[in-house]
Backbone:
């Protein structure tokens, strides 16, 4: 029905409104089905009402979002382009510390979704840690890392070993305290982290 009503670009806004309306109705139906499921599963009324409220708030938040016309983005685009020209660098985003990767991606930019994929134990976590520690310690940028597989102490051990160029097993076992050069290197890394 929507497709047939769109014979030219004049109807684009109407078409977009129709698509949004159909989407909203679909979401309302889904909320209704979820309510029915919750009632049949024996959930308590307070829990069901809380779930309904959350669903409606999320839907309302979506309804308030408006699209952006490409023409509205032109000033920001020109500003970004001028900034890149002034900086004299081809990499506009956050660098990872790996020049070849940075060159191909032109850095990690706001709004980018970067997926690091691979088989287990291939180094995905350490690659991400290296990129994050580079951003935090070299570029002095705020970073955050959520990990479901490593504790904070494990992350700290890895970062200190990697950035200090010392053996991870020496850091974990405490043997690093007996090697003055490695201990000094580790101390410098820890101080660097503290100052970042």
Residues:
């Amino acid at each position: 029905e929507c497709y047939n009503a769109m014979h030219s670009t004049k109807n684009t806004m109407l078409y977009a409104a129709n698509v949004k309306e159909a989407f909203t109705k679909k979401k309302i139906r889904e909320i209704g089905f979820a309510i029915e499921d919750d009632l049949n599963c024996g959930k308590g009324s307070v829990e069901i009402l809380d779930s309904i409220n959350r669903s409606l708030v999320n839907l309302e938040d979506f309804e308030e979002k408006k699209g952006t016309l490409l023409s509205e983005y032109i000033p920001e685009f020109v500003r970004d382009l001028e900034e890149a020209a002034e900086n004299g660098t081809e990499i506009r985003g956050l660098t990872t510390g790996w020049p070849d990767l940075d060159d191909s991606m032109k850095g990690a930019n706001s709004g980018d979704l970067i997926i690091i994929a691979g088989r287990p134990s291939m180094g995905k976590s350490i690659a991400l840690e290296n990129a994050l520690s580079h951003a935090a310690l070299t570029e002095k940028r705020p970073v955050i890392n959520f990990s479901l597989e490593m504790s904070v102490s494990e992350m700290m051990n890895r970062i200190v070993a990697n950035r200090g160029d010392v053996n991870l097993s020496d850091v974990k076992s405490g043997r690093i305290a007996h090697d003055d050069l490695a201990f000094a290197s580790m101390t410098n890394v820890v101080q660097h982290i503290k100052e970042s």
Summary: The radius of gyration is 26 Å. The CA atoms of residues 10 and 24 lie 23 Å apart.
